[in-house]
Amino acid sequence: MGAVKNKRMPRAVREQQMLDAAVRTFGQRGYRAASMDEIAELAGVSKPLVYLYLNSKEDLFTACIRREAEALTTAVREGVNPELPADRQLWEGLRAFFTHTARNPDAWAVLHLQARTHGEPFAAEVAAMREEMVAFVTGLILVAAREARRDPSLPEREVAGLAEALVGAAEALAAWANTTPGLTARQAAATLMNFAWSGLGNLMDGHPWTPPADTAPA
Amino acid sequence: MGAVKNKRMPRAVREQQMLDAAVRTFGQRGYRAASMDEIAELAGVSKPLVYLYLNSKEDLFTACIRREAEALTTAVREGVNPELPADRQLWEGLRAFFTHTARNPDAWAVLHLQARTHGEPFAAEVAAMREEMVAFVTGLILVAAREARRDPSLPEREVAGLAEALVGAAEALAAWANTTPGLTARQAAATLMNFAWSGLGNLMDGHPWTPPADTAPA
Amino acid sequence: MGAVKNKRMPRAVREQQMLDAAVRTFGQRGYRAASMDEIAELAGVSKPLVYLYLNSKEDLFTACIRREAEALTTAVREGVNPELPADRQLWEGLRAFFTHTARNPDAWAVLHLQARTHGEPFAAEVAAMREEMVAFVTGLILVAAREARRDPSLPEREVAGLAEALVGAAEALAAWANTTPGLTARQAAATLMNFAWSGLGNLMDGHPWTPPADTAPA
Amino acid sequence: MGAVKNKRMPRAVREQQMLDAAVRTFGQRGYRAASMDEIAELAGVSKPLVYLYLNSKEDLFTACIRREAEALTTAVREGVNPELPADRQLWEGLRAFFTHTARNPDAWAVLHLQARTHGEPFAAEVAAMREEMVAFVTGLILVAAREARRDPSLPEREVAGLAEALVGAAEALAAWANTTPGLTARQAAATLMNFAWSGLGNLMDGHPWTPPADTAPA
DNA sequence: TATGAATGAGCATTCATTCAT
DNA sequence: CATGAATGAATGCTCATTCAT
Fold it and tell me: Where is the HTH tetR-type domain (chains A, B, C, D) (predicted)?
């Protein structure tokens, strides 16, 4: 376990080894519980070298978040064919998302749990990634609305909320899929498409669910 | 800020003060970053008294989780009128959920972020609460299917997945609502009802979204 | 276990219960590891009452030492008939000593181990008791010498050393007897009499063991 | 006093400095009363370094016991010429013992008082050393019996008891010698030889002290 | 006579971080 | 490029002791 202790390798390679070790440790132990000692040892490197390359624990954590956020968005982007209709694009994006998170559970734990739990600077880092995904979904919703040429006047905040909800549901299903044995990325994606797209379709047909008039204010 | 430093109060009262301080501190700083010193000070009490009443940091955290999980499920349960049809019950439950989480942001941070991020024992504690909510939603979906007397044969795992997705979406919207100024619990609930219930309705009409035949394996 | 929690009992009785609990706790846990909480609980009393009656942990420990030292010396004194010849007196004293220590292992642990290990004031307390025993033995040696009317001019320091050695041997045998199953006080006393008295007799016959002339200084 | 604060020395050296400081502190204050802070300061090192090298207070204490037990047994072993007759061997062993304990009073306090007073794991450590010494003495007694070709049939437990008594007497005399000014190791050894060897000789001549028939049971 | 409530002070332990080589 | 040696600063936890009743 851990990288083979090869001496004298180029900086770029060493850095990736360190990030690998860090992602694994942060993902399993959590940000605070992970010690630089453990990370250095798992990377097969002395602690000062970690500091030489990555400056501080905060910087190291940030570097992990950036690398893994980039990897996830790239995986989703590359999984989607932008020529296809909106529902197919969403389907492909979800499949890529569930596949990637299932294959990189520690990375997903870092992004979904640890980064959001340990203070502003880290949370902001994932928030950026999340916004990219929400924007992607928002775009698809608007495209779908245009394709259907019906009711193009969905209020902006409403669309934003729908996208938020969809991304949140996807995140929840990723965790659910990771802990439910025998559940494939494909099945998770299908469940979510059923849940969301059908609802959205109905919605855009002009038949939204109507909240009842209220007596007691919330 | 902080409780008035009244000396000599009965144990039950002090304990609640301590839990208040702990929820606030854990919610804002995180489990590891919160120090028992800070919690004690915020509670207006000396550290030994916290230990005398709550034994350890772990026990204190667990007590926080339990109290807030109980408070949240109670709020939702009491917000729902079980005589109403399924869609109205879900609507009321969501409203109660968004209202409670908006009013107790630290408690929600403890339940949604901190408890899930810091190890099995705590995660298990919230998992129980989550399962109660998922079960509640699952029940509503089945009732709705029966009420519609259509396609009563939804596969069990499918329903479970839908419920997971709905709860996940609700959790995401709770965070979104907490950070979007001027967004009411009512609006958040309506967005989610639109998103989900319309989709479910469509689904149960026998028009699910159909995944395309695949070429590349996932 | 522990005293029955009878309310409102006279001070003298309560004090003895506290000392019982303290001796047991100090003997088993050691002075520092024993907590006033544990002692109070074992005595079936609240902590402030222990302080009211016995002032402080130090005073409580000192009271234990005094009570048990007194009990041990009394047991030895009452076991010895001063009319008998010296060897019979020593035999009886040793039997009483081994019997008492075997019956009160916690008390013996307090006197022999704990009191000597935790600082001057306590060590001084047992030293007094020890000196009484050494004096008793010294007296017997001198009486024996007079009875034998031989070589009455044993140098004082020599006699003191012999008495120290005998008491030390007795203490070691007490520990040994306490941990060797099936070894009676009588057997322990016989072993020591054999060892010591025969040696002393020989010595006083004018046949001491002669140290060889030395080349290397110590 | 205390090591000169030379920075950057090899681990093995620092470890010995730490053990020196620990033996001194444990010997004078006792195990519980000794604080890691004090030990670190006396060693001229920061506390974390002590933990880095010696893991914990328990491990540090155990390391002290091991080192000093080894040093004492080595001193005795090297002080004895196994070619000599039994009485000479005992004489030399005792001289080495008293010399070593007089020169290393803190180490002797650690072994004789502290280690036996603070729980099983430590007591077991010294018990091993003590057994080695008892075995050494037991061997000498048996050799002496064979050399004298008299009464070779001493019962095993009897011999064990005699050896225990002799070692106990030696331990008592070591403490006595340490607190009696002007008393040399040589004198202490001579006193004990007189006490013990003469007694043993007598015993093996077939003139043991005979316990009187008993009326009252013990 | 007796106690529930409360604390100041200290202690073992850990960790991120740096220097000298 | 790489590391063994070293530390300042916290942090969780415990304990003897006291006050108000």
Answer: 12-72
Segment 108-167 of chain D within 8 Å of chain C by CB: 113-114, 116-119, 157-158, 161-162, 164-167
Estimate in Å the CA B166 to C1' F6 gap, whole number: 54
B151: helix, coil or strand?
coil
* Nearest by Cα to D149 from D193, D204, D85: D204
Minimal CA–CA distance to D21: which of D9, D47, D10, D7? Answer: D47
Euclidean distance between CA atoms A208 and A203, whole angstroms: 5
Q: Which tens digits make up the pLDDT trace of D69-80? A: 999 999 999 999
Q: Which tokens in the block code for residue C22?
A: 């303290």
Range of the domain at A195: 65-204
Subset of residues 48-77 in chain D with CB less than 7 angstroms from any atom in strand E = 48, 51, 56-58
Asked if residue A19 belongs to a domain, the reply is: no
Distance CA D135, CA B116 (A): 60
C-alpha–C-alpha distance, residues D163 and D139, integer Å: 9
Residue A8 phi, psi dihedral angles, 5° rounding: 55, 65
Contact D218 C185 (CB under 8 A): yes
Interval C151-174: pLDDT, tens: 556 677 788 888 899 999 999 999
- Measured between CB atoms, does A3 come within 8 Å of chain B? no
Q: How far apart are CA B61 and CA B22, in angstroms?
A: 8
The contacts of residue A36 (CB under 8 Å, 6+ apart) are A47, A50, A51, A57, A60
Q: Chains near A, with 3+ CB pairs < 8 A? A: B
Residues 6+ apart with CB under 8 A from A120: none
For nucleotide E18, give the residue with the nearest CA to its C1': A48
For the cut 50, the answer to whether the pLDDT of residue D140 exceeds it is: yes
Annotate C173-211 with b (16+ C-beta within 10 A) or e (fewer).
bbbbbbeeeebebbbbbbbbbbbbbbbbbbbbeeebbeb
Convert B142-209 into a string of H (helix), E (strand) and C (coil): HHHHHHHCCCCCCCHHHHHHHHHHHHHHHHHHHHHHHHCCCCCHHHHHHHHHHHHHHHHHHHHCCCCC
Provide the shortest C-alpha distance from residue A84 to chain B (in Å).
Answer: 12
Nucleotides of F under 7 A from a protein CB: 1-21
CATH code assigned at B103? 1.10.357.10
Q: Which nucleotides in chain E have some atom under 7 angstroms from a protein Cβ?
A: 1-21
C56 touches strand F (CB under 7 A): yes
Please report the DSSP string for D57-111 in residue order: HHHHHHHHHHHHHHHHHHHHHHH--TTS-HHHHHHHHHHHHHHHHHH-HHHHHII
- Rounded, the Å distance between the CA of C72 and C1' of F17 is 32
Tell whether the model's pLDDT for residue D177 goes beyond 50. Answer: yes
Residue lying closest to nucleotide F7, CA to C1': D46
| Closest chain B CA to residue A159 | B191
Which tokens in the block code for residue C157? 């320091």
Number of domains chain A is built from: 1
The residues near D2 (Cβ < 8 Å, ≥ 6 apart) are: D21, D42, D43, D44
In contact, C94 and C156? CB cutoff 8 Å: no
> pLDDT at position C153, please?
63
Asked whether residue A186 is assigned to any structural domain, the reply reads: yes
Helices within chain D (DSSP H only)? 11-29, 36-43, 47-54, 57-79, 86-103, 105-109, 115-117, 120-148, 156-179, 185-204
Structure tokens at C129: 């008791």
Q: Residue C51, CA: closest nucleotide via C1'? A: F17
pLDDT band at D88 (very low <50, low <70, confident <90, very high): confident
Residue B214 lies in a domain: no
Chains that touch B (3 or more CB pairs under 8 A): A
**Does some domain include residue B176?**
yes
| B60 closest-nt by C1' vs CA | F12
Residue D215's pLDDT is 52
Cα gap A20→A55, rounded to integer Å? 16
